[in-house]
Amino acid sequence: MSDDSAVAIEGLSVRYGAIQALDDVALELREGQLLALLGPNGAGKTTLLSALLGLLRPDGGQVRVFGHRPGSLPARCLSGVMLQNSGVPELLSAAELIDQFRSYHNDAMAREAVIELAGIESLADRRFATLSGGQKQQVLFALAIVGRPRLLLLDEPSNGMDINARARLWRTVQAMRDEGCAVLLTTHYIEEADRLADEVILLDRGRILAQGSPNQIKSRLSGSEIRFRTRMGLKKLQTMLGEVQFEFSSDRCRLISATPERLLASLLQADPELTDLEVRPVSLEDALSSLTLEHAA
Amino acid sequence: MNTLTAPLPSSGHGLDPRRMAGALGHEALGEWRNLVRMPAFSIPTLLFPVGFYAMFAIVLPFADTTQAAATLLVNFTIFGVFAPGLFAFGVGLANDRDEGWLRLKQTAPLPIPVMMIARMLVAMVFALAVVVALFAVAATAGGVRLERSAWLILAITGVLAVIPASAIGMALGAWMKARAAIAIVNIAYLGSAMLSGLWFPLHLMPDPVQSIAPALPPFHLAELGRHATGLEAGSLAVSLSWLACVTIIAAALAMPGLRRQERK
After folding, report:
1. Is any Cβ of chain A less than 8 angstroms from the Cβ of B108?
2. B6 within domain boundaries
């Protein structure tokens, strides 16, 4: 564990009855680092966050938050937390909730600053009950940052947010990271991880499948994504593409190739009528889904 | 200079005492706003005891003697002040748990006892409002005549009755789902009031009820009220110790429920 470690997890295992929710997970999050935790539903992301917050007792392993026991008062003082489905007293306004949370901290941010950073200027006086799902998320984000945390834990923060709200959230999270805050983020939006994260961890069925910077993970799946529409049938495509895996429905085809130039030449020869051709570098999403598939096979 | 994230503290964590008082105040203010903005809580809490008292003591001819008038006031005071704590905790806490609000607060640096004390203080304010409303009706239309000190002691008893009521509510709310809590807390409330003789004199009740009553907290709170107003009552020490026991046991039962590990 290094000196600037915000979160250190070693050998973490959690079981719910017969289900192994987390199996020997180890990770380290340093100050000023933004770690994105990705994985399908049930991969163990929320369980990992719960263990980090001291909301559940692990069956094995060690978790430390700035060297403190998770859930202990010193750990809570240093953390800002945004959980999924947090019910909030619906009859209180966003500003009232922010003031209430500000009172929990010795050194809280000014109310106006929080409101601006969360992008909720126009919502501050509205009761929580009247807000949309994405707006509620923005208010919950505001509650997470009021205490000027050294560690920010965000569980699916941008769920339901519109584009502007999401951009504002990203800007604030990045600014906090740049000031040395450690950020752990779970997300379904892989684009979010790709844009923000210094490091990505892919979790599947309780185990870490892959870990690295978004670029390192993308480079594991070298090549390009190719999409096109063709009049060729499934049979003909199969013989033509040989070993290459592809998706095909009605006349649309999508595949990933390590040698796109060569493949394109033969494709265009086989079907000169080919339309809507797109070639682009593999996305983080492709890389991650291929890793998940490899693991399942 | 960092503005978004605070520097790591070199020593000391948690709120300093001055801040703790501020947190308690804000917490209580939030609870107060939430309850007064919820007519389903605030209106019955105030109107039920006053309405029932007015029906029994003014519309119906039950307050025919000075003693009967005082007895009715004591009974409906206890009936009224037992509700805010019982419901704010029994239903409110169950709701907070179900909806994830308690979980979010458990991750914040607010000690959970501060949250509980804030909620109890707000219930006490509601209890005081019930007392004031009842006393106003009793002293005018109800024809109740008491020494000034008797009014005062009865009022204080009414406000402090929130403590055992909150503890019992906390024991229920810490373990039950919100939906079940609404039904169970209502049954517990109305049932214990009835069986404690708050609605009908105990000596008119069947023998089994008369023997259950001394186990119920509202019965002993009414005993304290009878002491305060100079009515005939049992041992003050017995009532006080029984109420203390129930409060401690209920709070102890609530603790593991609040700390319960998260399970999916």
Report:
1. yes
2. no
